[in-house]
């Protein structure tokens, strides 16, 4: 049996997936994608600015929201500009090292976001079930420590993913099924035993995203149990309504993540367009929806945005 040559063992680059049947229209397809990316950047920057300048929002829940905004900015910026360059300038190739770096950032930032969502669920649990101890338990210093722990957890769990792919030979097609690099996508192109990479990747996902999702559900079961003890339905709805924004943000993160995982696991026979759409949703849906959800549900953010619009209109009129 012939051995793969040296270029096969260490590929210089991978080929990003194009939209089948729409290759000639990539320029126009990129315009709505760019618009959505601009919305995500503007929305998350607005959240960071408003929380920074609004003293009433200097509480753990909104500090965690700022962390989410920063993560979404980093995650979308690590992928979308490269996708736009591909669509507009036909630069389909991405170097092997750049692909591994992008993969590391995507998975690590997703893990950090999952941990922050869990911290926000714990914040809601303490605020509702132990309101008198909330200020003592979740101080600003504790919030910073949780953010640093989330970063360390993401890096420690997902740094091995690209390292496990480094020694693998790649002698199959170099074309990915997404417009950016994901671990399972790159791993499937290897022509060697990928069992260690498969096992570690699955273990990392279960111990981070899986465990976080389980603990978030547990937090809300305890919250629901506490809420149902209240005397009237009006009080129950008033208390539980403080959790609606966080529940929506959790769904915006986990639904695309689960959908993408299902497509990777069971969708090998699906048309390539499904993989591309699910990949883009995984990157952009949380980044776009999170600022909108908290903007709609938070009166202080609404007032601040209206004030900024009013000031901008006055300056334009002058």
UniProtKB/TrEMBL annotation:
One matching Pfam family? 7tm_4
Domain of life where this protein originates: Eukaryota
- Cell compartments where the protein resides: Cell membrane; Membrane
List the keywords (alphabetical).
Cell membrane, G-protein coupled receptor, Membrane, Olfaction, Receptor, Sensory transduction, Transducer, Transmembrane, Transmembrane helix
Principal location class: membrane
GO MF annotations for this entry? G protein-coupled receptor activity; olfactory receptor activity
Q: One of this protein's GO BP terms?
A: cellular response to lipid
Q: Which family does it belong to?
A: Belongs to the G-protein coupled receptor 1 family.
Task: Give a yes or no for keyword Membrane in this entry.
Answer: yes
Domain G-protein coupled receptors family 1 profile intervals: 43-294
Q: Which residues cross the membrane?
A: 27-50, 62-88, 94-122, 143-166, 198-223, 244-267, 273-296
Q: Check the record and name the InterPro entries matching this protein.
A: GPCR_Rhodpsn, GPCR_Rhodpsn_7TM, Olfact_rcpt, OR51/52/56-like
Q: How does it sit in the membrane?
A: Multi-pass membrane protein
| Presence of keyword Transmembrane | yes
Which named protein is this? Olfactory receptor
**One GO CC term, this protein:** plasma membrane
């Amino acid at each position: 049996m012939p051995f793969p040559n040296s270029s096969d063992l260490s590929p210089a680059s991978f080929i990003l997936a194009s939209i089948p049947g729409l290759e000639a229209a990539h320029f126009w397809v990129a315009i709505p994608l760019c618009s959505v990316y601009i919305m995500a950047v503007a929305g998350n920057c607005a959240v960071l600015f408003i929380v920074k300048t609004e003293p009433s929002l200097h509480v753990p829940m909104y500090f965690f929201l700022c962390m989410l905004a920063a993560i979404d900015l980093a995650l979308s910026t690590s992928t979308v500009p490269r996708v736009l360059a591909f669509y507009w300038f036909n630069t389909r190739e991405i170097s092997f090292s750049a692909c591994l770096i992008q993969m590391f950032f995507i998975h690590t930032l997703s893990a950090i976001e999952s941990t922050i969502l869990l911290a926000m669920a714990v914040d809601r649990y303490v605020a509702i079930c132990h309101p008198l101890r909330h200020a003592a338990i979740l101080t600003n210093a504790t919030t910073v420590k949780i953010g640093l722990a989330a970063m360390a957890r993401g890096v420690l769990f997902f740094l091995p993913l690209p390292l496990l792919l480094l020694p693998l030979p790649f002698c199959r097609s170099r074309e990915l099924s997404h417009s950016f690099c994901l671990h399972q996508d790159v791993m499937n192109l290897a022509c060697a035993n990928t069992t260690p990479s498969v096992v570690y990747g699955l273990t990392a996902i279960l111990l981070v995203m899986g465990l976080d999702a389980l603990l978030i559900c547990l937090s809300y079961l305890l919250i629901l149990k506490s809420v149902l003890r209240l005397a009237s339905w009006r009080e129950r709805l008033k208390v539980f309504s403080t959790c609606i924004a966080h529940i929506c943000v959790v769904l915006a993160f986990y639904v695309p993540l689960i959908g993408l995982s299902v497509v990777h696991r069971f969708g090998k026979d699906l048309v390539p367009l499904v993989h591309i759409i699910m990949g883009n949703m995984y990157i952009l849906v949380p980044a776009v929806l999170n600022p909108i959800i908290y903007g709609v549900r938070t009166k202080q953010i609404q007032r601040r945005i209206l004030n900024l619009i009013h000031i901008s209109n006055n300056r334009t009129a002058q």
